[in-house]
């Protein structure tokens, strides 16, 4: 990592906190949860709708998602955990809550499929 990138990574959280007054009402953390959730698409599919053996996140109960995120973030993640324990490190509990809420509010069926398109 270049020093300039490290500097930007250190400054970014302060900027996010400073701009939290403009955060959407659903966000309880200082992160832009939609941006963070987009990175989940790499494995869990767009909007958390997986088309592979990796579990879908969309439409799952918020409490279940939050329980799993907290388990991944714990000092003793579930057996067989692959990359999730590394991905959630550094997130605050409010961030995990916001991610769980975000995915629980997405329909498990894409609108085009539900409309018969």
Automatic annotation (TrEMBL):
Signal sequence segment: 1-27
Swiss-Prot/TrEMBL keywords: Electron transport, Heme, Iron, Metal-binding, Signal, Transport
Organism superkingdom: Bacteria
Residues of the Cytochrome c domain: 27-107
GO MF annotations, alphabetized: electron transfer activity; heme binding; metal ion binding
Protein name per Swiss-Prot or TrEMBL: Cytochrome c domain-containing protein
Protein's organism: Alcaligenes faecalis
Lineage: Bacteria, Pseudomonadati, Pseudomonadota, Betaproteobacteria, Burkholderiales
